[in-house]
Design goal:
188 residues, 16% helix, alpha+beta, 2 domains, Porin, globular
């Protein structure tokens, strides 16, 4: 009985709090969310290309009985139109208990969020695909990618960002893998 009373009280109080918001507060909340999904548009000047290069370091976790292993890589990219980004990355990992060196060369297409919500405005989602080179063969991999890049300097023309990236790669004929890591990028 007390649980039902507690849930009812919390539900009613949250509805009342929303109803008590001033019109200005509601407008401010709406304005913050409107820019989150930017309208597609052409690049107007060179600074809007958001060209970058970076380093990634993280963990590759293959499905199956193979242990996780460190993963390192480099990446480059730019934004040919707002909010679309394209890029490439080379990532390598040596799987400990199988003595297999995996190197991926991946192309990437992303949708970049915007707006005023702190982490969301620096986030992206997309797809990545490309060849995966093993010691003795080549496989193909593709999958979703998501992440964010938070500027660690003022956003002038040249700045650094620190972020996280995560991707799940479906790979032909071998186990799929999930990898996540830190991304340090230089934007110019």
């Amino acid at each position: 009985m007390y649980k039902i009373l507690l849930i009812s009280t919390l539900s009613i109080s949250s509805l009342t709090a929303h109803a008590q918001m001033s019109r200005e507060d509601k407008m401010e909340m709406r304005n913050k969310m409107e820019g989150t999904l930017p309208e597609p548009r052409e690049i107007e000047d060179k600074s809007m290309y958001k060209m970058h290069m970076g380093l990634t370091a993280g963990l590759n976790n293959p499905n199956g009985d193979i242990d996780s292993a460190p993963e390192f890589g480099i990446n480059v990219g730019y934004q040919p139109s707002i909010p679309i980004g394209v890029g490439a990355e080379v990532v390598t990992t040596e799987l400990d208990n199988s003595d297999v060196q995996k190197t991926s060369v991946l192309g990437r297409g992303t949708y970049n969020f915007g707006g005023n919500v702190p982490v969301l405005r620096s986030s992206y989602v997309g797809v990545t695909a490309g060849p995966l080179f093993l010691d003795s063969s080549t496989k193909w991999s593709a999958g979703p990618v998501a992440g964010f890049d938070i500027p660690i300097q003022s956003k002038s023309r040249d700045y650094l960002s620190l972020g996280l990236t995560a991707k799940y790669l479906y790979t032909t004929e071998i186990q799929d893998s999930f990898s996540t890591g830190l991304a340090l990028k230089y934007w110019y």
